Structure prediction request, 393 residues.
Amino acid sequence: MHCWSIILAAGSGTRLSAATNGIKKQFLTWKGAPLFWHSAITFSHTSRMRGLVFVFPEEELEEATDMLTKLDFGRRLGLPWKVVAGGARRQDSVYNGLQELPSSCTHVLVHDAARPFFSASLSNAILDVLTSGSNAVIPTLPVTDTIKVVSENTVDHTLDRSTLQACQTPQGFDKNMLLDVHTKCNEEGWEVTDDASIAEQAGFSVTTVSGETSNIKITNPEDLAMIEQKQATMPVPVTGWGYDVHRYGEGRPMKLGGIPIQGGPEVVAHSDGDVLLHALCDALLGCMGEGDIGEHFPDSSEQFNNISSGVLLNEVYDKFLQKGYTLTNVDLTIIAQVPRLVPWKPQIKKNICRMLKLNDEQVNVKATTEEKLGFTGEKKGIKAVAAVMALRG
Prediction:
């Protein structure tokens, strides 16, 4: 799977213009950044995401691109991105975005920038179904209100709400299928409200996954109160500390922070034995009050035999983000008499930044010895400690 996302931020926002002094809703500020940026950050925390296409109003394309460049200073997103002008209708904007996708892209998520509160877990749920072979997947929630069909202020009939679902974004698709049906839509002059409607009209089945009640869409002036309410919730600082050891002996080739250490001693381990990533997992679990790595990935389970510690970190970090935590700083220390780790520190740091989507100044990697004391000093093993700072809420 090679998935990109199209973030639709080209709407005019006419229903909100009076309440926002003419500022389009996708550019409204929440937590110090425009709404479209929060969607981008969430996608950057989706491990299978490979890139983003932003669709902005044509008249504000240059200004929005400058804004995006400043927001992504230091490659904060950790993903390539492109910018394109939107069209007159939503479907035109999506079509323009599809033209910017690279040929290597196999799947695409289409998302409205006015829904900034969705989670990475929702994106992953959609991608899981796409991976299983579905051409189109959308998140939905059951309709709780009674829905009436009304004509000229008179109720015509009442719909059976047990069969009704409210649709959300992001919506996921096979890229080639979506491009083909959008082309047909343009040629035949269809008018649709979302991309799933185009797939349906073209005869494709659309699969649903459970949506999120927090995944609201900013549409009317009263919706602004939701942003203000969320802004009023102050995040709580939290810390986590992790520690792990592995002894040397016939076993796994040494890896630290996901980087193979050529010439290093082999380590005895059930997984791949990456002591640094294990300590980091424990620190993240500590922030959440979620126990330790052994509880989540027991070494008694054959499922985790020789598993990549990067996979374990990805699962822990996904849970961390899904629970609303924001990682701010990571400080890591490797303790070993052998091998000499100074040459490897820059690569380890770079890889940790990539896996956690953090900037250089947010990650520190240290290596030290214990002056030939203890089991590390006697060259019998290696240990690592991790300290992390985060915000909850």
